[in-house]
Amino acid sequence: MISSVLPTYNRAPLSFVSGAGSWLTEADGRRFLDLGAGIAVNALGHAHPKLVEALTTQANALWHTSNLYQIPQQQALADKLVANTFADTVFFTNSGTESCELAVKMARKYFYDKGQPERIEIITFDGSFHGRSSAGIAAAGSEKMTKGFGPLLPGFVHLGFGDHDALNAAINDKTCAVLVEPVQGEGGIRAVPDQCLKGLRDLCDEHGILMILDEVQCGVGRTGKLFAHEWAGVTPDIMMVAKGIGGGFPLGAVLATEDAASGMTAGTHGSTYGGNPLGCAVGCAVMDIVSDPDFLAEVNRKASLLRQKLEGLVAGHPDVFEAVRGSGLMLGLKCKVAPGDVVNAGYAHEVITVPAADNVVRLLPPLTISDEEIAEAVSRLDAAAGSLSAS
Ligand SMILES: *Cc1c(COP(=O)(O)O)cnc(C)c1O
């Protein structure tokens, strides 16, 4: 008999009842060190006092009105995002995949309004992940996500990750945009080298097409910059955001330049919940913390510490691990064993990690993780890896 919850997930037999900082407490009382952060969502850990305060204050005042009216919290968060990024304008969504939907619509509408309605094709790369909506699965294009769900939304061209020749050859007079994650998350923590992101920007400019970045997982301080593309010194035309921006409250956004957003006039897009007062009040609190240069400097310092300890872990378990990769506190352990086995061994040692494609285990700790917690986490991973080599 089917479970009352639609069985689309293979869930671990863990059920957490509370959280504080980098720690989660299981129903049986065990405390787990959380290096998954709800898949890069709990950017400031669990129950951060500033976020709890923002949410409860707003909850006592007003939950929902509608985008038919002014929403001051939404205005405030948009102002913060515009002040801290390349963007001139922001639309709020409730998830990453909704951000993908709007990014695709915005890019196509841009060219439609410029008198080039034939420009509808969006180039994407293998290993990418853009969410589970119809546009999201068509954009990523992997058989795992699309099989059985046809007909797929047309207009996506899928290229090999890092295949520059194919990219040059693929751009033609039907091309509208290139969509890429600066650091692939689900794909196995694969970073686009800074040089390549720069090259991609040049290519987009040369052909007059739009650059869309999916920073749903790698954004909001995760790599040690507010947004990952800042490392390469280039800016996109459109950027998808979600996950960390709400710190655990469902919130997403599409950021864009004034030019790229020019087709999105009144009535062209909407959302009942997008930009609601609760989500935006929390988003403002997240942005106030994460956009502080001192906070980002700490993320970078802790990222080096974690990376250095992970290099030692890999060296100590050559039969389990192959390499460390990634950027900032978005790190991957490339495994020689099944990543699911490493994740399960971690559970047995009360440390949470997240599997990804390409035989990688992801480490996405809260950006607020302490030095002591980093040391404790790596020692738990060491014990977990030891239990695998022994068997
Ligand atoms: C998680 C993720 C998405 C989808 O976000 P949802 O909130 O699950 O819809 C899209 N893109 C990337 C890069 C992601 O990591």
Automatic annotation (TrEMBL):
A GO term, aspect molecular function: N2-acetyl-L-ornithine:2-oxoglutarate 5-aminotransferase activity
Binding-site list for pyridoxal 5'-phosphate: G96, T97, F129, D214, E215, V216, Q217, T272
Pathway assigned in UniProt: Amino-acid biosynthesis; L-arginine biosynthesis; N(2)-acetyl-L-ornithine from L-glutamate: step 4/4
Residues binding N(2)-acetyl-L-ornithine, per UniProt: R132, S271
Cofactor(s) the protein requires to work: pyridoxal 5'-phosphate
EC number(s) recorded for this UniProt protein: 2.6.1.11
Residues carrying N6-(pyridoxal phosphate)lysine: K243
Catalytic activity: N(2)-acetyl-L-ornithine + 2-oxoglutarate = N-acetyl-L-glutamate 5-semialdehyde + L-glutamate
Keyword terms of this UniProt record: Amino-acid biosynthesis, Aminotransferase, Arginine biosynthesis, Cytoplasm, Pyridoxal phosphate, Transferase
Subcellular location: Cytoplasm
SUPFAM superfamilies: PLP-dependent transferases (SSF53383)
Miscellaneous comment: May also have succinyldiaminopimelate aminotransferase activity, thus carrying out the corresponding step in lysine biosynthesis.
Protein name, UniProt field: Acetylornithine aminotransferase
Organism ancestry: Bacteria, Pseudomonadati, Pseudomonadota, Alphaproteobacteria, Rhodobacterales
Gene designation per UniProt: argD
